[in-house]
Structures are given as structure tokens and as C-alpha cells.
Amino acid sequence: MSRMWKLLVLAPAVLLAGCELGTKVVEQSGYRGTGMAYVADKSDMAKPGDVPPPPYELTADMLKGDRASAVYENVQVLGDTSADEFNYLMQAMTTWVAPDGSVKNGGCTYCHNPENMASDELYTKVVARKMLAMTRQINAEWKPHFGNKDNAGVTCWTCHRGKPLPVNNWSSAVPDGPSITGRKNGGNSPAATVAYASLAYDPFTDYLAGKENIRVGATKALPSDHKASIQQTEKTYGLMMHMSQGLGVNCTFCHNSNNFAKWEDSRPQRVNAWYGIRMVRDINNNYITALGNVWPANGKGANGNRRGPHGDPLKVNCATCHQGVNKPMGGALMLKDYPALKGSYAAKPVVAQAPAAPTPMAAVAEPAKPAA
Asked: What is the CA radius of gyration of the chain?
């Protein structure tokens, strides 16, 4: 066989090397022949068994005793739980965030001074308290994002998976400066953040920490008054690529292939995603960034850096919880064994509302904003 013939035979294999191998699961999500299908890699689909079991059984009697705030000092977030339930949750948290032997000073001492468990000199304890408040608030007020009647909810495990720092995180990226090849305008450098597409590699700062809305699609042909730039369009598509990869889904999981912008023909998951974007903004702005100087300077934190190269704290995006699966841990009911994380008893849930009618110059007409 000649060398040229060998190259021709091997060429298809080389070209297909970028494709994902393995068994695929295909589920039709719209009318046949329209490209409305959900395709997932079976090996990537997490199962409920991926969630660690509770540390021990939480009985009804354990929920009745004295409140944690009356038994222990300096309990600021979980003071309304019983002391027994408080201890039960603390034991679970060591498995979720810093198991013994997994990191330096793992277990209880990752957050606590063993000589004075009530003290706050370790920054990790201050962060953990804020994250507990965040988790309860998510479970109480962001149910519209979960999109199911079972209210699976979240725990620390949802993001951490046994690690002090969630694997999927991000920080602001300053666009590359001009070079001999020109100015890249924050893109044209295939990056993992946008599924290795040559799109804007930081779609998060404006959309998942800022308040910028997706407004790139015109509502009429050849518009002369449309203001969206090519850079805005690329940034929008970068965010969509991230969401697709982060959830392990294709575009038609949320959108109708006939008209991506039209809310009336979109799948219900698009409303869940709308709430999800705003939930992530709430997390990043009101909990993570709000900790300010509590986050140590790089090189001084326990078990690694907690800030990006430009000084802002490492934040969350869709992949932080989902990790490539449209329902984290295959839709496991995370709150079933941890009632303390269901939220403050005074919390008022957000009421999901139908999307509003499209507005001029909008790629996406948003649903009414969640009530505060």
C-alpha cells in the first residue's frame, strides 16, 4: 500500500478524532425532522448514587431538642436548628467539602480552631457561614430554576464534590493587548470556558456577575437601527457554548430550532435557564464577591488560591453545579436528608412567571423579574 493511500485511509479517523466516542442517548424533544433532539453521552450521565450517604440516620426526635444557638456559641446561620441536627449537618459538611486526609487540616479543623470552635480567626469558617446562608437562600428562593415538583435543591456537595474549592470556577479575564497579529478583542483564542470555540473567552463577567442582558438578535430583516456589535454577539454565543457544555446539552434543549429568539415556541427549560442566570448573579455578587477581603491574597489561602490573577474572587458558573449534566447528580433529591438547608423559615419563595412578550431590538424577551 502506497504512502498516499495510507494517508487517505487514515484521514477519516483523524478528522473524527475530535468527535466524542461512546454510547449516545437521543431523546426527541420536538416535531420530527426539525432537529429538535437532546443528545447525551451515556457515560457522562451522573446517577443519584454519586451522592454520598448521610453520616447517620436523622430521626424525628433529633429535630426536637434545644436549638443550636442555645447550646453553642456564635451560631449565626443555623441557630434555628436543633443541636442534634446541627451536629449532623456539620458531620456531613466535612464529607462534602474537606474530608479528613484529602487536604491539609481536613475535617473539622479545616474551618474550626480545635481549641475554640466558636472563634472566627480562620477565614474558611467565615466563608462557610456565608455559603450556608447562600445555600439556604437558594433552596428557599430559587425554586423556579430547579424546575421540578420534587424541589431537589442543593447542598454543599452539589458544587464541592469533596473538594474545598469547586473544580469549575472562573475569574475575570482581561482581553489580550494588541500584538503583531493584531488585537483579538478578548476572543479568537480557543478556550475551555467557551468549549474551545474562538469566541469571547470571558462571557461571565458581564452576564454572570454584571447585569448585561442578551440583546444581539434583531427582530426584523436587515435592521438599520440595531445596536449590537459583533463583539457582543460573540460574547453571547460564548455564554451559550458554556451553557451547552456545562449542562451536557445542545441548543434545542432550551430553544426551538425554528426561531431561537421566540419565547412562545421555546421549551420550558428556557425559563429555568433564565432564572438560573439570575441565580448565579445573586450567588456571585451577594455572597462570593460580598465577602471582599475575607478572601486571602493568592498564595496565602488554605490549600491553594481563592482569587483570580486580577484579584477578584473565584466565582461560579453553570458548570460549577451541573458538571456536564442537565440535572446535577442525575436529579438526586439533595434536600431529602438535610431539612436544615431548606431555607430560613421566614424566606419567601420566588413565584415563577410566564415570559413577557418580545420587545423591539431584543434577541430574548425576558420573563418578569423574580420578586425580591
From this structure: 23
Helical pair 123-141 and 269-283, crossing angle rounded to 10 deg: 150
Q: What is the pLDDT of residue 193?
A: 87
Q: How many helices (H) and strands (E) does the chain have?
A: 10, 2
> Could you give the CA distance from residue 316 to residue 320 in angstroms, rounded to a whole number?
6
Number of neighbouring beta carbons within 10 Å of residue 313: 21
Average pLDDT over residues 297-314: 87
Are the CB atoms for 334 and 51 separated by under 8 Å? yes
pTM for this predicted structure: 0.83
| Residue 323 burial (10 A CB sphere; 0-12, 13-18, 19+) | buried
Q: Which of 306, 322, 179 is nearest to 246 (CA)?
A: 322
For the chain, list the strands marked E by DSSP.
24-28, 37-41
Placement of cell 418580545 in the chain: 358
Given a cut of 70, whether residue 34 has pLDDT beyond it is: yes
